[in-house]
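INTERNAL AUDIT FORM
Audit reference: QA-55
Scope: verify that the stored structure record matches its stored sequence.
Auditor: D.O.
Record contents follow.
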Amino acid sequence: MGREGTTPIEVWEGWPREHWRALWGVPVLELYGVAPSTNDIARELAEAGAPEGTVVLADHQTAGRGRGGRPWVTPPGRALLLSIVLRPSVPAEGEATPGVLPLLVGLAVARAIGRIARIRAGIKWPNDVVLADGGKVAGILCEGVLGGRTGGYVVAGIGINVAQTRADFPPDLDGRATSLRLATDRNVSRAALAGRVVAEVLRLAAHGARPLGRALLADLRRRDVLRGRAITVDGERRGTAQGIAADGSLLVREEHGSSVVLVRSGTIRLAEGRSSTREGART
C-alpha cells in the first residue's frame, strides 16, 4: 500500500514477510521500515474490515505516540513497535468493560518479556510495563470502538524497549525508562519477542471486554507495582493504591478517610515524600 510517509519492506530480521506471518499464525502482516504510526495504519485496516490478529510492525515510527498523545521516540531498529487488530467480544447482558483491555495487553507483554528475556516484568496501571528498578520498558496504547459498522475493534499498540543503551534515552527519561538490553546485559531477539507478544495478546484478548476473573486478577495483583503505594492522580494527591478492580479501574483508598474509590482514567504517579507499606514483594 502506498501510504504517505511509509517505507514498506518485505524482509524483516533476515526473513521474508510471509515467513513471519505463517510462523505467528496471523491473517495479515504489514511490515514497514518507516511509518508515522503503526496504530494509525492498523486502525485504517480495522475500519476496512481487517480480521482479528492483523499485525502492523515498523522498525521506526516518525509520529509514534503514547497515552494522552505523548510522543514515543526511539532510534530505528532498537525497539519492537507493533499494533494488533482485536475484535473483542462484549457481554450479552450487562455493560462492557473496555478498561480491562489495556491491562490484558500489558499482562500479555509482561508474560512475553518473562518468557523471552527471562526477566520479571510488572504492570503500572493503566498501560505501562516496568522492570524491577521501576524503569518503564514498554507502553500500551489501545484505541478503537466497541460496536459500529465493522462490528467494533480495538487496535492494541505496543512499544517495547529492546536494544537501547543509556545514550539512546533523552535526559528527561534518565532513570524512568529502560530496555531489555540494559536490564539483562544481553541481546534479546526482537523476532522471538514479537512472536510471543502476538501469541499472548491474542490469547488474553479472547477474554473480551468483560470483567476480569479471579485468575487474571491474581496475576495482575502479583505484578501490580502501585499496590500499597501513595499516589497522585493528574498531579493531585489522592491516597494509596489498593489494587485493580474487575472492570479494570484502579482502587484507591483516599488519603483522608477510609473509603475506597474507583479511578478509571488519569495520569498516575508515585507521591513524592511519602511511603506506604506494600503487601507482597515488589516486582
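Auditor finding: record pair retrieved intact. Residues 273-283 have pLDDT under 50 and may be disordered.
Action required: none
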